[in-house]
Amino acid sequence: MPPATAAATVRTVLGDVRPEDLGVCDAHDHLFFASPRLPGQELNDASAARAELAAFRDRGGAAVVQWTPYGLGRRAADLPLLARDTGVHVVAATGLHQAVHYGPELLAELRGGLAEVFVAELTSGIGTSGVRAGLIKVAGGFHALDAHARWTMSAAAEAHHATGAPIAVHLELGTGALDVLDLLCGALGVPPDRVVLGHLNRSPDFVVQREAAESGAFLAFDGPSRTHHATDWRMPDALRALADAGFGHRLLLGGDTTTAAARSVDGGPGMPYLLRRVRPRLELAVGKDLVARILTENPARAFATAW
């Protein structure tokens, strides 16, 4: 791992930036994403991605962390131009999603060398793009961790110990947070403040959220505007409860746009919704100062690493 005395930076697709320069951050979203589980809804249009980033910037956004991992159409080579054109910092991911998102042939190819793939993409670059990833994204299952999840999380932990990179975790329908922490932070020795738990808003269990916050991990409330997840109307209460308990510094917000129909340029809420609707609603619940910190200081700490 890099020496503790090294200055922490956030690794973006245009190079490392100081955490204090990250600005207002969408801590979990997707500019490009393609999965066989979402046929016909691929995010694969660079012009639409540019328009979405520009719309987010026009609402005051300054940074987007793309959680699209290995093999799901992240189009790393396109990200620097988009970041440069729009003036928005973009952070790319390595990692691996749930097994259902991949064919068995690809998974077989990765057996025996997954951690090495993650480390290479964090330090040397993704493919031939030269773009270095700034985080590792993995995923749990519904209230459980299957063999695939344990394999990918073990590789993520190994890559973290080699690089210091943060690990972001997709929690299926917001469940399994404590199992993830037991594995990553218990058995595998990853410091809790290097773990970002995603989708906690999808399972509005205040007890689990409190326990996860007490561990020292970051809690991402992402994917708002989805009525079937009952996220928006419960999110203020969840954030207020965590803030009142002293965990406001552990909270993150993200949009998690995963389909073309969800983009604002295609008529959906998209990335701007986070700042257009979610931010003012949360400001009424917990105050403007805390929401400002959740959007700036917290992601700056969550994604900064002494590379």
Please give a structural write-up.
The structure is a single chain. With 307 residues, the chain is of the alpha/beta class. The protein has one domain (9-305): Metal-dependent hydrolases (TIM Barrel), CATH 3.20.20. Helix content is 37%, strand content 15%. It is built from 11 helices and 12 strands. It has helices spanning 46-58, 79-86, 104-110, 114-123, 147-163, 177-187, 206-215, 235-244, 273-286, 288-295, 297-302; strands spanning 9-12, 15-17, 25-29, 63-66, 89-91, 93-95, 135-139, 167-170, 195-198, 218-222, 251-254, 304-305. The protein has a 6-stranded parallel sheet with strand order 6-7-8-9-10-11. Strands 2-1-12 form a 3-stranded antiparallel sheet. Strands 3-4-5 form a 3-stranded parallel sheet, covered by helices on one side. Helix 4 packs parallel to helix 5 and helix 8 crosses helix 9. The mean pLDDT is 94.
